[in-house]
Amino acid sequence: MIERENLILPNGKGWITLASLIAEKKYSKLFILVDENTEILCLPIFYIKMEEMNEWKILKIRDGEKNKNIETCIELWQELLLEGADRHSLVINLGGGMISDLGGFIASTFKRGIDFVNIPTTLLGMVDASIGGKNGIDFKNAKNQVGTVNQPKLVVIEHSFLKTLPKEQLISGMAEMMKHSLISSKDSWNRFVTSDLNDKAIFENLIWESIEIKNKIVQRDPLEKGLRKTLNFGHTLGHAIESHCLDNPYREALLHGEAIAIGIILATFLSTELLGFPQNELLEVYNTIESYFPKQKFSKNEISNIIKLLSYDKKNIGGKVLFVLLEEIGKPKTDCFVSDSLIFNAFEFYEKS
């Protein structure tokens, strides 16, 4: 179990630690950031776990990635000011990846930084977004362009929140679990592929394995100078696809995990073409992902737009778009250049396989 300086704690132990943190720090104001869904589904659970031991002020925003923007930030900063928040206040982010991204950014910038705690309520939030200290918002139709690197005081992992999720949200989080396994080891990937995910105990063990994979990488490279870049596997094209669908009035927005799942397939194909990643394992990755995620279709014009959006990727250096690819499962390679023509080939493989 993870018990380090930035604590990531499970269920009962997490709630006890949170209560102790609040008592020890004697925060002047306590805020909970929720969206329209977590206010209804998760806030009552929070109150039960914390036994309504404190006076909480609720910060409520509209749900969805489209609201992870500067306008929402301004609304929240104004509300914090009106409610008398100061540098000794605490913000608790109760929600999925959008809430932890935006809430961490709000807290990190308000009065040059106040404490915050992440309590992820989605699978994606538990295994990825709430861990590692990356906070931020989207800007000009591009993902996470403005943000901070600032660690939460605590991350509480409460498995019972998973019962509040619709099936597609649960599956969305599995894309990040697949990514962690692929960059970690063949043993980790094989465990994911062969495990009975309907078995609650097995699934919870896989969740913790995924959390530990990410946390170990973050601990070794908190500022993403090298190793942490590997966590971007599948995200270069995945983020561009997500942004394209979010901004396209003729398409339905994709969940983050749905876009990342496509990005993983594309990146694995590129790995086969450029680094000799085994063809049979490419097909295994493709078939595993396709068994959970419905296939999407993209026109040539859409693919061209997705390629244009790559210019906003945070890993770019000197105008070059750089990918994380795999030499083999468990052996990622960073800073790989990929031509536009090869990206078109990757989409062709994805759509025709």
Automatic annotation (TrEMBL):
CDD domains: DHQS. Pathway: Metabolic intermediate biosynthesis; chorismate biosynthesis; chorismate from D-erythrose 4-phosphate and phosphoenolpyruvate: step 2/7. One of its GO terms (biological process) is aromatic amino acid family biosynthetic process. Its EC number is 4.2.3.4. GO terms for cellular component: cytoplasm. Residues 59-171 form the 3-dehydroquinate synthase N-terminal domain. Residues 173-316 form the 3-dehydroquinate synthase C-terminal domain. Belongs to the sugar phosphate cyclases superfamily. Dehydroquinate synthase family. NCBIfam families: aroB. This is 3-dehydroquinate synthase. The lineage of its organism: Bacteria, Pseudomonadati, Bacteroidota, Flavobacteriia, Flavobacteriales. The gene is aroB.
